Amino acid sequence: MSSTLPSMEGTLFTYFRDEYVNRVAFLSGRKAHRRHVVLIGGLGVSVGGGEWRGRRWGYVNRVAFLSGRKAHRRHVVLIGGLGDGLLPVPYTQSLAAALDERGWALIQPLLSSSYTGFGHSSLKTDAVELHHLITYLQEEMGSETVGLVGHSTGTQDSVYYVKACEGDASKKPAFIILQAPVSDREHLALEERTTEFVTMARAMQREGKGEEMLPRAAMWAPVTANRFLDLATKDGLDDMFSSDLTERELRDRLGHLDVPTLFLFSGADEYVPLGVDVQELGEKFVKACAGVCPLSRAATVVGAKHSGKGHEEVVVVTMLAFLDEVESLAASQA
Predict the structure, then answer these.
(1) Residue 2 — very low, low, confident or very high, per pLDDT cuts 50/70/90?
(2) How far is Cα 246 from Cα 239, in angstroms, rounded to an integer?
(3) Strands, DSSP E only, in the chain?
(4) Measuring CA to CA, which residue among 11, 109, 107 is closest to residue 62?
(5) What is the phi-psi region of residue 262: left when phi exceeds 0, alpha when psi lies from -120 to 50, beta otherwise?
(6) How far is residue 271 from each of residues 77, 95, 184, measured CA to CA in Å?
(7) DSSP H or E run through 94
(8) Which residue, among 102, 104, 108, 83, has the nearest Cα to 17 in the 3D structure?
(9) Is 65 within 8 Å of 54 (Cβ atoms)?
(10) What does the alpha-carbon distance between residue 241 and residue 306 come to, in Å, rounded to a whole number?
(11) Residues 47-88: pLDDT tens digits?
(12) Closest Cα partner for 272 from 305, 312, 239, 319?
């Protein structure tokens, strides 16, 4: 890694949000200015953008946004879900401020899968890019401890990344917090044409065309046959939190979690199937990683929707309480 990689300071802000995508921009210079120049990059070029000070830097061909003091040697990486990028959740700013007070910096990476890129990416690709990010944090910023907070499909990234680190303990996160771990498969099963597109995607895989795109109607963003099957089928790489998984199937998916883990549910999550008790589901998840996980917890934010909007304070307080437990455990083992 080279310390000559570019970085810049500025203000991150949201300028548009629809049902799926949060559009952000990055401002350099004084907010008091009333004249602005908009810089538009070419293909493959992206920069970051919410309402507080931070730093953007490059690692490999990716960028990330840091909130908090650069002198911090402990970092939390926030990973959003499908369609997310920077400022992925309503509690981002609150979490960043609370972590900063405790001596942690918050990192928001832009992965290849960010925004609508998830359709031609995978958990494997995300794991490689998270490895690059953590290597950068360790080698260039002196990071001593890194934890992961995943939201929605970002929870699958977090779980998969722990498994990807089995051969390199130095890059393994100190803990993971899984906020709104839900089933993409169960949600997609409610779509009228999902079965049709699953059949089509399997045929494309058999023909060696798994990395080619399904018809545009398959999903709200362009998606390859491989990623669609990962999201929509029981044997897919992303299917970790479905309510119909057996104890053995859950162990196969979560049994490798040997770092402190919090399953943090939203009590009124619109992506959880009707009739599913999320606290009961969380207890199943905790049981699935029992024996290897040094600290596992399940908690529910009562009344909260998927993103936690309107319950940001409770979400952050619950995360900080878990972080206290993680730090106490680390101190007892020192």
Answers:
(1) very low
(2) 12
(3) 7-17, 22-27, 52-59, 62-67, 74-79, 105-110, 145-151, 176-179, 261-266, 296-301
(4) 109
(5) beta
(6) 24, 23, 8
(7) helix 92-101
(8) 83
(9) yes
(10) 14
(11) 433 333 455 666 656 788 999 988 999 999 999 999 999 899
(12) 305
Q: What is the DSSP letter of 224?
A: B
**In this structure, what token pair is assigned to residue 278?**
């999320």
| C-alpha pair distances (Å), 43 with each of 40, 129, 146, 223 | 10, 19, 31, 19
Nearest-10 Cα torsion for 241, 247, 252, 255:
90
The dihedral of CA 122, 128, 132, 137: what is its sign? Answer: positive
Nearest CA among 291, 276, 294, 320 for reference residue 179? 320
Return mean pLDDT, the chain: 90
Is the CB of residue 271 less than 8 Å from the CB of residue 220? no
Gap between the Cα atoms of 161 and 62, Å rounded:
17
Eight-state DSSP code of residue 32? T
Percent of the chain with pLDDT over 70: 87
How distant, in Å, are the alpha carbons of 50, 99, 153, 161, 175 from that of 147? Answer: 22, 12, 17, 11, 5
Sequence letter at residue 155: T
Q: Long-range CB contacts (< 8 A, 24+ apart) of 244-249?
A: 244/186, 247/284, 247/287, 247/288
Unique residue bearing structure tokens 């196969």: 252
The helix/strand/coil state of 13 is strand
